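no rush on this but wanted to send it before i forget. theres a chain ive been looking at and ive put its sequence and its fold in token form underneath. please have a look and point out which stretches look like helix strand or loop to you. thanks a lot i owe you, the record is right below:
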Amino acid sequence: MRKGLFAAAFAVVLAVSTGAARADELIESYGAYIGQDDLYNSSNERLTQPWQVIRQDRANVHRFGVRQPGDDLDSFFASPRNRELAERMIRAGRIERSAARRLLDGDVQIYVEIWRGAGGDYINISVN
């Protein structure tokens, strides 16, 4: 009986530790130049949040065909549904305050990593 309990406890510990050790997966990464066109939506309203600018930049690239030097193509945000998820993904990810300010000012090169984790997809953004 003790042997069975020990084996069961060991199996539970092994299962939990294996799940916890699973690393997040990089789905895709790309570079983008955030120009003045990326700071305004289709109604010519100034965007005020980093996720709005990222979403507009990717809509400009994929939907409107507006690419600037420094804009890489990505497959993830080619989907309008994925562009809608940008806000939640950025909130779940990482961007430094100073990087967010620079992004909102425009005329900067950014690097975006799209990750899949146990808690869902998220984005990390760095500004060069």
Summary: Residues 24-127 form one domain. The first strand starts at residue 25 and ends at 34. The mean pLDDT is 88.
